[in-house]
Automatic annotation (TrEMBL):
Family as reported in the entry's similarity comment: Belongs to the cysteine dioxygenase family.
Gene3D superfamilies: Jelly Rolls
Provenance organism: Streptomyces cuspidosporus
PANTHER family membership: CYSTEINE DIOXYGENASE (PTHR12918), CYSTEINE DIOXYGENASE TYPE 1 (PTHR12918:SF1)
Keyword annotations from UniProtKB, A to Z: Dioxygenase, Iron, Metal-binding, Oxidoreductase
Residues in the signal sequence: none
Family matches, as InterPro entries: CDO_1 (IPR010300), RmlC-like_jellyroll (IPR014710), RmlC_Cupin_sf (IPR011051)
Bilayer-spanning residue ranges: none
Protein name: Cysteine dioxygenase
Highest taxon listed in the record's lineage: Bacteria
CDD domains: cupin_CDO
Amino acid sequence: MDVTTLIDAVARIKSEADELTHQEIIDRLSGPLAEFTTSTENQGFAEAYRPSGNYTRLLLNDPQEPYQIVLVFWGPGRGSPIHDHDDTIGAVSALTGETKEIKYIVTRCEGEHVKLTQGSEFTIAPGRVTPILPEDDKQLHLMINEERRWAATVHVYLTAIHRYRQYEPAPDGSFRTAETSLWFDECGVGRRMTRSARS
Ligand SMILES: [Fe+2]
């Protein structure tokens, strides 16, 4: 599946989302995302891409669209802090390499401070999809590349994320929420991906 077909599939699921349960949305996102991430042509694009830093985030579709399809590059040993996804529904898989995902559950809120407990662990790899859901046990996670090679992951957010929260550990074992904005190193990268597949 090429990037244009993936973008079209996500646009269609977005337009039908009001009629679907959360699980139906995840089921419909998972098939195209697994096909996209197991395509050797798409993997070749990620292998050939030279990220500028140890963590690079590219928006594959256009920023004015109401959803986001994001390609993230993780250097060896690089990971994210625990974060939420501003209540969007989405799905994540890997195009190259693999990353570990750990879900977290909010057990108590006290103002800016929250208590978290560790939930399930998952290995994100090509064709293996993990859901992002607004439910309390499926919204927060961290990701880390524990391998010695680069990893590239693909994140579909059915509602575009602009602001989200990171959870920073406090000395007393709780976490402090810090609102942050989602930035991209580059947008509309899917168009370049299509051109390189043709050449
Ligand atoms: Fe995430």
